[in-house]
UniProtKB/TrEMBL annotation:
Keyword Hydrolase: yes
Entries under PANTHER family matching the protein: N-ACETYLMURAMOYL-L-ALANINE AMIDASE, N-ACETYLMURAMOYL-L-ALANINE AMIDASE AMIC
Keywords: Hydrolase
Source organism, top-level taxon: Bacteria
Region Disordered, annotated ranges: 1-21
Cited InterPro entries: DUF5776 (IPR044081), MurNAc-LAA_cat (IPR002508), N-acetylmuramoyl_amidase_3 (IPR050695)
Residues passing through the membrane, by range: none
Entry keyword Hydrolase: yes
Pfam families on file: Amidase_3, DUF5776
Organism name: Oceanobacillus sojae
Protein name: MurNAc-LAA domain-containing protein
């Protein structure tokens, strides 16, 4: 059984980069949790461990020591870039690495680029701690620039984060040769109502109420969420509209 170690960058007292109303530690955690959930939903033959599953502080050494002692087969560290650029890039160690490390990264890179419209900044190498000190194949992904408005706006979209996570999950699965579960993984989006009752809308207008739906009901989503006034909506397959607020609905794909 393949052992996958997901490492959401930063966390706790280390926020990582911050700009445009975002903190890196929160975005990386969201991406890692989504990646975990997609892997578990769509694939079999693996187990997953994470360096953190909440807003906790973990040193770089704690992360690699944990992965090494667990005997992980693949270490995937998820980050958001900063410094005024735009786009996606990933890194493997700039020293000696196994053939698998290169192959795994190539497959991961390809699958992520299938899902996103970020500028492709390429496949790179660096002397990062998590790449150098991990005893298994390791990669670090940089998913857009938090201090570039266009990239940050994408990172604010839950639907876009789902696409990034799907690319990570499919890339990891391709790298490790995981088998897809029967019926898993169309990528279709859905929303589940998580509040006792909730209005839907005839048009993308908060004043144009349609019918009330109940907790536990699930609806098929058409396209990404979009801004309406100070909030966001999803269009449903039925033609109605619903809030995209995570306070009231849970978005997922399958």
């Amino acid at each position: 059984m393949a052992k996958i170690y997901l490492d959401p960058g930063h966390g706790g007292t280390d926020p990582g980069a911050s700009a445009n109303g975002l903190q890196e530690k929160n975005v990386t955690l969201s991406l890692a949790l989504k990646t975990r959930d997609i892997l578990n939903r769509d694939y079999e033959g693996h187990t997953i461990r994470m360096s953190r599953t909440s807003d906790t502080t973990r040193s770089l050494a704690q992360r690699t020591n944990d992965a090494n002692s667990w005997g992980a087969d693949y270490f995937v560290s998820i980050h958001i870039n900063a410094g005024g650029g735009t786009g996606y890039e990933d890194y493997i160690f700039n020293g000696s690495v196994s053939n698998n490390t290169v192959t795994y990264r190539d497959k991961l890179h390809a699958e992520i680029m299938k899902q996103v419209d970020f500028n492709n900044r390429g496949k790179k190498r660096a002397n990062f701690h998590v790449l150098r000190e991990s005893s298994m194949s390791a990669v670090l992904t940089e998913n857009g620039f938090i201090d570039t408005v266009a990239d940050a706006n994408k990172l604010k979209s839950d639907a876009y984060l789902n696409r990034i996570a799907l690319g990570h999950a499919n890339g990891i699965a391709q790298a490790l040769g995981l088998s897809r579960k029967s019926g898993g993984g169309s990528g279709q989006g859905y929303v589940e109502v998580i509040t006792p009752s909730l209005w839907t809308y005839n048009t993308p207008n908060w004043d144009d109420r349609a019918v009330i739906v109940s907790q536990g009901e699930v609806f098929t989503v058409v396209g990404d969420r979009f801004q309406v006034g100070n909030g966001y909506m999803y269009q449903l397959k039925s033609g109605l509209y619903i809030t995209a607020s995570t306070q009231y609905v849970r978005y997922y794909t399958r």
